[in-house]
Description:
4 helices, five-stranded antiparallel sheet, single chain
Amino acid sequence: MAIRRICKYGEKVLEKKTRKVDFGEIKKELPVLLADMFETMDSVGGAGLAANQVGVDLRLAVIKIQREGEEPLSIVIINPELVERSGSLCEEEGCLSFPGLFAKVRRAAKVKVRALNEKGLPIEINAEGLFAKALQHEIDHLDGIVFISRLPLMSRLKLKPALMKLKAQWKKLDERKLGPAKL
Ligand SMILES: [Zn+2]
């Protein structure tokens, strides 16, 4: 297993729709890729990581939700599709490709997602709260959409100076040098 470098805002791979997974084709490499993605996400205390965030052009993501007093929920979604959404919430979000930047993003409160799991079996997920938010954030990544593009124009403009400042720091940031999880 290895920690991989996380692509930061500005890198082209984050703004391109990912390639649909042919499960048979990547079956052999999948366990290593997924283990690396979980390790990378854990090393920076993330709740989700899409393949294109580590520079891999595949429609898959990992999610890990930690609820107080509960075992963490780890899930792999391959070729996920959002099939239902309802309600609305506007909560603070961050992104591993924008370290240090947070903004309130409007999302559906509840979603239904269909995907394949790590074994290639179809799954249907009904989620709400943080889990629903993470699913929408990761599916957006796989569609080449970063979270700040979900913000109203005015909020985006307001964030711009902070974003420019952070961007200069990200150039030096490489998760592979961070070592094991701190959380
Ligand atoms: Zn993200």
